[in-house]
Amino acid sequence: MNVRRRSSAAALAAIAVIGAAAAPAVAADPSPSSSPSKTAPSGLYGTTDPQYDGVWRQSLALLAQDTAGVIPSSTAVKWLTDQQCANGAFAPFRADPAAACDAKTPVDTNNTAAAVQALWAVGGHGDVIEEALGWLKSVQNKDGGWGYVPGTPSDANSTSVVIGALTATETDPEKVVKDGKSPYDALLTFALPCAKDKGAGAFAFQPDKDGKLLPNADATAAGVLGALGEGLVADAADKADAASCTDADKPTREGAAANAAAYLTATLAKDGHLVSALGGSADQPDYGNTADAVVALAAQGGADKAAEPLAWLEKNAAKWAAESGPAAYAQLIFAAHATGTDPRDFGGTDLVAKLNATGPAPQGVAAKDTASANADEKSDEKDDDSPFGVWWFVGVCLVFGIGIGFLLSNRNKKQQP
Fold first, then answer.
1. CB half-sphere exposure, 222, CA atoms < 13 A
2. In the chain, fewer beta carbons within 10 Å around the N or the C end?
3. In b/e form, how buried is each residue of 167-199, taking b as 16+ CB within 10 angstroms?
């Protein structure tokens, strides 16, 4: 590595940055909303009752922070790891983590798979991840899939989120088999053929009581990502032709994903968002599933395919996220990431700062990427008149007490389970 010479002023500026990085800090944003929440001293993000969604929302929050380049709070990460049972499974919430899990502890595949994705992203928890994956494999159904609760029939959503956990940890779902069936085999059984008058190409959650497959937008968004082998966080694919539903004698994962994307595109065309109806009430915008659909469409066909629902979210989702909390902010950050949108200016809202404010302050922000760092070096080199390199100067100051250990420490981003 070439050491570039810089001015003493640049060196002093570098030292100031190091000093700031050595202390826990919120992601770089001066707004009051970036300050940590005073209502979550335990490390949990959000203030609502965590009985049903504690692990889920904590996992999404940590995963979204990592996606946005934020180093999560160690307290928040510990809260999540403390929720694991001795057998490797996670329940939505354990009020007393010191108490052993028993047969009444409501462990499930969705929370476990989400926790795996989050802990893999933040790094340093290989044992926790290995035990969680071992439990997931132990409760795999004979059709190759998973239900929400062990022992229940497989469904598209649960199977997809477990596929995400497997691929996130560099485990090939094709090789995770039960009775010769892989998760992909199970997932494809929920895909509707294009010949259907309604719901052509969609995924069903499960067959209904009569064995029929009914289209489900939530399951379809999840199914697209599962069929593609993607997790909760997905990058945009290269641009693809307009999605259209095409039947094949033997459906492939890619074909099923394309068909499902075509269904989502058609469903979103009317209003730019998905809808939901609760208890017979009038249809309401479904912000969360719309955000999931944005990720799915971008992952399957490129960011352009998700432009319309993304624009609708940027215009309308801020109030929903503020009312719904950490998981909602995380879903919007995932949508921003998948489409190359700045999550710190999402329709005028800094999603990252808002998320950070719902729990303990993050440790800081990740280092700038190499390209940006190199550009800065070239700029500084132009007015350099120092006989020594900046890092020599910084190193001398570090010896006098700044603390080189923290500077050089770096989390293990991809620790193998």
1. 25
2. N
3. bbbebebeebebeebbbbbbbbbbbbebebeeb
> Token pair of 319, please?
């109030």
Q: Which residues pair with 285 in a beta bridge?
A: 275
pLDDT tens, the chain, 417 aa long: 333 223 333 333 332 332 333 323 223 232 333 333 344 448 999 999 999 999 999 999 999 999 999 999 999 999 999 999 999 999 999 999 999 999 999 999 999 999 999 999 999 999 999 999 999 999 999 999 999 999 999 999 999 999 999 999 999 999 999 999 999 999 999 999 987 677 889 999 999 999 999 999 999 999 999 999 999 999 999 876 656 777 766 779 999 999 999 999 999 999 999 998 666 667 899 999 999 999 999 999 999 999 999 999 999 999 999 999 999 999 999 999 999 999 999 999 999 999 999 999 999 887 543 333 334 444 444 334 333 333 333 343 333 343 333 333 333 433 444
Of residues 203, 201, 187, 210, the one with CA closest to residue 245: 201
Contacts of 353 (CB under 8 A, 6+ apart): 26, 27, 29, 31, 33, 34, 344
Facing residues of 84 across strands?
90
Q: What Å distances lie between residue 92 and 51, 82, 107, 174, CA to CA?
A: 6, 12, 7, 28
C-alpha distances (whole Å) from 392 to each of 5, 30, 46, 57, 172 are 10, 31, 44, 44, 45
Query: Tokens standing for 410?
Result: 């770096």
Q: Report, in angstroms and rounded to the nearest whole number, the Rg of the chain calculated over CA atoms.
A: 23
> How many whole angstroms separate alpha carbon 289 and alpha carbon 54?
19
Task: Spell out the alpha helix ranges (H) of 139-283.
Answer: 156-168, 183-188, 217-228, 253-268
DSSP 314: H
Q: Is 180 left (phi over 0), alpha (psi -120 to 50) or beta?
A: left
Distance in angstroms (rounded) separating the CA atoms of residues 373 and 378: 9
* Residue entry with tokens 């994903």: 257
Sign of CA dihedral 236, 241, 244, 246: negative
Residue 297's SS3 state is helix
Which of 268, 278, 270 lies closest to 221 in space, CA to CA?
A: 268
